[in-house]
Amino acid sequence: MRSPYFYARNLYWNMPVGLRNTLRKPARHIAQTLWGLRDSPSKSRFPLTSRSADLTWAQFQRNVLNHAGSYKGVFIQNVLIGWDVELYQRPQHMAIAFAELGYLVIYQTVRWAADDVQGFRQVHPNVWLTSYNVVDEVPGSVVSVYSTDHAIDPDEFFGADRSTHRLVYEYIDHIDPRISGSSDNIRSLQALKERAFAGGVDYIVASATSLYEEAAAVVGPEKVLLVPNGVNTRHYRRRKGDTAVSPEFRAFMEKHEKVVGYFGALAPWIWYDEINRLVEARPDLGFIFIGPDYYGGLDRISKAQNVLCTGPISYNDLPAYAENFDICFIPFEPGEIARTTSPLKLFEYFALEKPVVVTSAMDECVRFPEVFAGADAKELSVEIDRAFAVKDDPAFKARLASLADENDWNHRAGAYEKVFEGLKR
Asked: Most Cβ neighbours (<10 Å): which of 78, 305, 418, 422?
């Protein structure tokens, strides 16, 4: 069985990102069929061999779970995205934040992802990656599922014993075809949301004010927490001199005295038409876009001489690239996605102490008076000039640094801690 599994996994990871996202559910099913990956550890059809450096279930029980009482609690991140992915996202950040607050975190993945874990592997102090489904094996834990996971088995998640677990539905995005893909995916996400809103979970954690208000109106504010995205400030403030940028990036920087930069997915919710108008109107500016291509976004960006698209850059190396930006950019197209999204990159830009220019439809960004916002290319051009006027102002930079500190991931995990109250272990 191993040869078909590895052949299928390699085929999957050689697909474009957008196609991989669309096929995530059948890919997960194929992996389960070939490897039995989502068995509980006590029922696994494929016990670990002695060649594996990862812990077996027995070793994890003995060395980690037997000491669970020394932690503030146990947080289980249900299968969503792998740990080692192109875009380091909310699940990984929240896992680390909980670990740093004194919780034991079990981050569930599947081996068709890039992680290739064969049991239990520590990826950060107190954060353990596993290919097993451990929910039934670890009573007294908080279990999280994301509103964006169309590949999850809802019966498995909602079937967890709520007398011994707390179930949390993380409502992080408006359900939209541009995020979720096919009509089948949309139906799966709507069904997941309906069960969560109908009382299937103990708490709903919303990442944006509009999502919070929607959930609170249905289930009551006492069952909803507002926990926006955040930033690992230490990561963006660490010494970056040891990381070399690519020759292509360096050459582009040398050609352009003023640079506007973006990092994140080149996704369908980016406002390509207005970006291209802005690029054409401002040949005096260099525009850099760092991130993977989702659903053909790369083809929609201008190929002008003052545009550079680098592709994805690893999370570890990203600060060394982004510190070269003069102005940071979040150009989402107006609509529900823009209105309901709490962009991680906003707070990461704050930590870099760079002025941020966004499209004015982005409610979670424009609530900060320090953010510059424009309704179209013409207004964005004006706001970019306003941002340049303050980019080196010490007081402005200090205010951005303060905003980053106020929105650190550890603060976010602290707001999330309420879900552990009264949970017996």
From this structure: 78
CATH of domain 233-407: 3.40.50.2000
Q: Is the pLDDT at 38 greater than 60, yes or no?
A: no
The CA distance from 48 to 264, in Å, is: 37
For residue 66, what are its two tokens?
A: 């037997």
Contact present, 149 and 127 (Cβ < 8 Å): no
Alpha-carbon span 214 to 210, nearest angstrom: 6
For residues 104 and 116, give the distance between their C-alpha atoms in angstroms, rounded to a whole number.
Answer: 21
What's the pTM? Answer: 0.86
Q: Which CATH class is domain 2-230?
A: alpha beta
Residue type, 48: L
For the chain, the domains span 2-230, 233-407
What single-letter amino acid sits at 195? R
Rounded Cα gap, residues 179 and 311, in angstroms: 19
Residue 8 pLDDT grade (very low, low, confident, very high; cuts 50, 70, 90): low
- Contact indicator for 173, 118 with CB cutoff of 8 Å: no
Integer Cα distance of 391 and 372 in angstroms: 12
